[in-house]
Design a protein that fits this description.
heterodimer, A: mainly alpha, two-stranded antiparallel ribbon, about 5% strand, B: mainly alpha, two-stranded antiparallel sheet, 22 helices, about 75% helix, about 0% strand
């Protein structure tokens, strides 16, 4: 049997549903005349698991799992990792430093742009965004331990 | 009618104030930019700019955000026609014949037809919205919890029925969205649900981080810059005016697209996307020369572009009159109104007439602004398309982070956005449409509250949904749609949705 994309997707939803159900133990279901806090989530989980099963049953019409195009995965992984680091540092280093580093790293590491171009672009872009959001629109931007 | 005209007069007295005009202009300009630039749609655009409106009053805020929405429908056509890349999902169909026209030296004519069609459709939509939203709001005042539960159920089933992907996939996404909407403090009992001792999750998951993650970051993750290459065709200003034959060929498609788009816009789902696909399919079907489609047919531009604009206006009807979003964009707009202390729904027209009528009047003005913006300034927007995507997406990621963080100054929200970006990427790989997920997230609190209140009212009797006339009618509609879907699934008959899905794939 060929493993198809809907086999994987359906199984993922079933597993997710069972996991959340297990985490819902402390939520009382209540009675129909006095529905508890757990009633709606548990009903939804049953529906989700049922649809997951339906997806697996009807998976023959979906494309083979091996044919899913993943050539963009390196790009996606790098972006998630770099943005994740930026999010971690955001409240510590503040808007100006974090965003300059984020844009600079994306341009040099992911896009392989020349360092000077990337530095000029990231500094210019962050400065413009800081002025537009922080000054013109008066949005309170995060300041870091360096005071800016 | 007299009352409506008086109210509209009030609306224009609000909409023509310099500040409101200014924010309508900003919204239309940003919307056009959002539509022109690939990789950032109206939902991400509105979500990112939502925090900027916190300092504004409710009228200015909603006028600006709505301008971004309908402005993006105009702007999306520019990229589709000149670059063959849809700037916005609803402009996919315009790529086909719009770009073919451009390659035949008729880029200016294609842009003009798209802009004029959009303007006619947008204006028609606002006129109908003016006429039907107030009486619909009066009717909705009779709605209690059972009616709202039934209405939301019909909305979800309609969404699944209208979707070009399967019923199961759509409802699966909607139930995932509803489940995410359960996170946080239960308003009836004060019980925490799935908050895992993270205080920020006590208020639940916000729509902005989810929407920006799924539609903004998710799109960027799956679009490496090497894939975004294309030749930009630069139209000459003197070539903007279509010839007599092109005007003649665009008349009826604009009219059909306008009416069809508005009607589809009222129904839940990704209306502006579905309407353009349907319009294209209809025009091709009834054309005397279907072989011209794909090679620069004028109707292939005029119909879909009119339809997506009319649909974006139609989507405001249930939002303003019933307080129910038909899609993720209207859901964010509703959230924006609520942030400003203005609850959308049947009480809006009476409790906040200046916001309601000012907003509607601003759309008449906004559509004129967009016509003026999109034709003479097309050269400027073309230049924007020359910014390499490699330099553009870091800017969008930066805006995503700022936009999400500024809503509640919560870094947890930014993490949620990042996680949702990964989820959006994965969903795309497995052919899931994330729009129902966002819709489910938004309606979750209203749906749960009205369902539980209905059950408490009836002492646990499910028949309450069949004992009240409005709820009964809605439930019959719901059963009819489910039956229609079941019949086509059991008999394996290709209904109009399957055919439409095939058109889309082609």
């Amino acid at each position: 049997m060929t493993l198809r994309s809907d086999h994987v997707a359906g199984a993922a939803f079933i597993a997710f549903g069972i996991l959340v159900f297990a985490l819902s133990g402390d939520l009382p279901f209540g009675r129909l005349s006095a529905p508890g806090v757990g009633m709606m989530p548990k009903l939804l989980l049953v529906v989700m698991i049922a649809f997951g099963v339906a997806l697996v049953i009807g998976a023959a019409a979906s494309q083979p799992f091996a044919e899913i195009e993943w050539s963009d995965r390196t790009h996606a992984l790098l972006l998630v990792a770099i943005t994740g680091v930026a999010v971690t540092l955001y409240t510590t280093l503040g808007f100006i430093v974090t965003m300059t580093l984020l844009v600079f790293t994306l341009l040099t590491v992911v896009e392989r742009k020349p360092v000077l171009h990337a530095a000029a672009y990231s500094i210019g872009l962050t400065a413009t965004a800081w002025w537009v959001f922080g000054k013109a629109l008066k949005a309170p931007l995060e300041t870091g331990i360096l005071g800016f | 009618m007299g009352v409506t005209l008086d109210s509209l007069w009030l609306g224009f007295s609000v909409a023509l104030q310099p500040a409101v005009l200014w924010y309508a202009f900003i919204g239309c300009l940003v919307g056009t930019l959002v539509g022109v630039l690939p990789g950032i749609g109206p939902l991400a655009g509105i979500s990112i700019l939502l925090p900027i409106t916190f300092g504004l009053n409710a009228t200015n805020a909603i006028v600006m955000l709505a301008g971004i929405y309908y402005g993006s429908q105009y702007g999306g056509s520019t990229t589709s026609i000149l670059l063959r890349i849809p700037g916005e999902a609803s402009s996919v169909m315009t790529c086909i014949d719009g770009n073919a026209m451009a390659r035949k030296g008729r880029a200016g004519a294609a842009l003009c037809i798209a802009a004029v069609g959009s303007w006619i459709a947008g204006t028609f939509g606002v006129i109908v919205l003016t006429l039907i939203a107030p009486p619909l709001a009066t009717l909705a005042l009779k709605f209690g919890p059972p009616e709202y539960t039934a209405l939301l159920t019909v909305g979800l089933v309609f969404l699944a029925y209208m979707s070009t992907s399967s019923l199961v996939r759509t409802l699966l996404m909607a139930s995932l969205g509803l489940l995410l909407g359960m996170i946080g403090i239960d308003p009836l009992s004060g019980h925490f649900r799935y908050s895992f001792d993270i205080p920020e999750l006590g208020d639940g998951i916000g729509i902005v981080p989810v929407a920006v993650g799924l539609f903004g970051l998710g799109e960027i993750l799956s679009t490496p810059s090497r894939q975004v290459t294309g030749e930009v065709i630069r139209p000459k200003l003197r070539e903007l005016w279509p010839n007599r034959e092109e005007w003649r060929q665009s008349g009826w498609p604009i009219a059909r697209g306008t009416v069809m788009g508005f009607l589809i816009g009222i129904i839940p789902g990704s209306a502006h996307i579905i309407s353009s696909f349907l319009s294209y399919a209809v025009e091709k079907k009834i054309s005397k020369h279907p072989e011209e489609f794909g090679k620069g047919a004028v109707a292939g531009v005029a119909g879909p572009e009119s339809a997506n604009n009319a649909a974006s206006t139609g989507a405001f009807v249930p939002m303003l009159a019933l307080g129910i979003p038909t899609g993720p964009v209207t859901a964010v707009l509703m959230a924006a109104l609520m942030i400003h202390g203005v609850p959308p729904g049947p009480t809006l027209v009476n409790d906040h007439p200046q916001v309601f009528w000012g907003f509607i009047a601003s759309m008449y003005v906004g559509n004129l602004m967009l016509l003026a913006l999109n034709l003479p300034l097309v050269g400027l927007f073309v230049n924007l398309l020359r910014i390499p995507y490699a330099y553009l997406y870091p800017l969008i990621i930066m805006f995503c982070v700022i936009g999400v963080y500024e809503v509640a100054h919560s870094i947890v929200d930014v993490w949620i956005m990042l996680i949702m970006g990964v989820v959006g990427y994965a969903l795309k790989k497995f052919n899931f449409d994330p729009a129902p997920l966002v819709l489910g997230l938004v309606i979750a609190p209203i749906f749960e509250m009205s369902l539980r209140q209905s059950l408490i009212m009836s002492d646990g009797n499910w028949l309450i949904f069949l004992q009240r006339p409005i709820a009964l009618v809605l439930m019959i509609v719901c059963a009819g749609l489910l039956a229609a879907s079941a019949v086509s699934a059991i008999t394996a008959r290709r209904d109009w949705r399957a055919k439409l899905a095939e058109e889309v794939k082609e």
